[in-house]
Amino acid sequence: MFRWFVKLMNDIKIRNKLLLAFLGVTLLPVLLVGGYLTFEMRTMAFDNALEQASTNVDRVRKRTEEVIGVSQDISYRLNNDTRLKRLAVRKYESVYEVVKAYQDYTDVREYLRLYTEISNIRLYTDNASLLNNWELINPSPAIKESEWYQRAQRYEGMVGWEYIEDERDHHKYLSLVRKIELEGSSKTGMLVINVNSSKLTAILNQESFDTMIVDDQNNIIASNRKEREGKTLADISFDTKLLGQGSGSYEAVVDGEPSQIVIDELNPQASRNALRVISVFSIDSIVKEPNRIIRLALSVITISVALAFLLIFSFSSLFSRRLLHLSKHINRVGTGDFDTALQIDGKDEIALLARQFNSMVRSIHDLMLEVQVSNEQNSLLQQKQNDIRFKMLASQINPHFLFNALESIRMEAHMKNQQEIARVVRLLGQMMRSSLEVGRSKVTLKQELDMVRCYLEIQQFRYEERLKYHFIVDPAVESLSMPPLIIQPLVENAVIHGLDNTLEGAVVTVEIRYEQDHAIFTITDNGAGITRDRLEQIRITLETQEEQEGARIGLRNVHDRLKLSYGEKYGLTIESPPNEGTRISFRIPMEVAK
Known about the structure:
Helix content: 40-55%
GO molecular function, one term: ATP binding
Low-confidence stretches: none
Transmembrane segments: 296-319
Oligomer: single chain
InterPro entries: Bact_2-comp_sensor_kinase, HAMP_dom, HATPase_C_sf, HATPase_dom, His_kinase_dom, Sig_transdc_His_kin_internal
Structural class: alpha+beta
CATH topology of the largest domain: Beta-Lactamase
Enzyme class: transferase
EC number: 2.7.13.3
């Protein structure tokens, strides 16, 4: 990945590199820092708002608890007030008695006068002799069948908090509802104490966030937004998933806006149900101010980066133009024009490089003139030396073969007829003519193989069944042109090593195949192989510049001629595992005979 990036950067122009460097060094850190600060600022604003909402909710809960605590205290007093209970169950003979009894019992009126936290106290009791004076009331069938009345009947002596309508002004109040036993009777009454709504509203109006007090039926009892009082949470598009949630912090949609909701439960002592204080704030409103600051900062940063980009673009263009001017002159020198002169003003590194470039061009021009003269002389000398060495190498074929062949002809003359001797003499003549024509630089593959066949036929005449040979030639290499006397010395070496296998005789294989614009030659025998030390010595001998006395002239001859003809990377490769025969291979470029 890193190498790919380096290669990519190397392919980009210097001006663009400078612009990318500016963007990477300046713009990228600004974006990263700006993004981080934006996130942190938004998070900080949100956390502060959440902490403030939690604190506000806790404060509202405590103050609300103080207000409704007054209703609880009065309910406990009235529950133990025997005078009130006797007043509620007594059978009155006349209206006068009822009025007189009401006048004598002033506790309810005193509570209302002393405690502003409550707005009304009434006791529902079934007593036909009583008059409804908004303190003692005979419940109507509708009252008895109402849900709040029925719920209170099921809980003996426990306080309940209901959002119910007062028959006197037909307004709904948060009311303490409690079932009490009347004195000396099996009858029961229903005590209702209205909490002063203005007190609750005053508590909520001090809060900055949207805050509500809600009962267990999701009725909004009080709110610092007047239009929400008397409604339910469902009426204000409150997320239905949060309608029954207890204390905690939640994210939800309220009135179509993403909001954060903080809920704190208010559980009055010995109450059968609880109230909830709910604070809601819009997330967008909280991050509005940080967003404004961020937009302002981004505007300033954008303008600054744009101005800096224009400056760096101007500097990089000036820099790249001078380098481009230098590049054009270098290209002219590359095409062979050494009369060019580069003129770049200034004293910076590019101007210094231009002056050094001019000096270098003059030096190269003078040096090339000298090298040209020297090369012409060396080329002529090298050509003559190669011609002499090539002919000397080609003449170093081992003469023992000719002596052995003539000896075989002599012996055969006594044992066979004239036709066999004539064939061997003809083959020997062909080989001698090929040897005399070795001065030619190249021969065809067919001519080279014909000479090898002549050699092997003569050797078969000598060794009879103890020598066998095979030719495997790829048709793709039949038109090959190559130096003469390359294959024959290697085949001769293979015959010698193959005959070391005295039991089976020699089997020599010559394989020539085409591979990647080269002809691959492989000569193998089935001899006893060469020991590792001897093979290493042969390889060292082939690579030694000076010929050593007693070295294998045939192999060294072929190895040197291949290198002279095709270059240093060409030559012989010898493989000879013990007892597995010897394998000699080489390759030459495909050159078609003309």
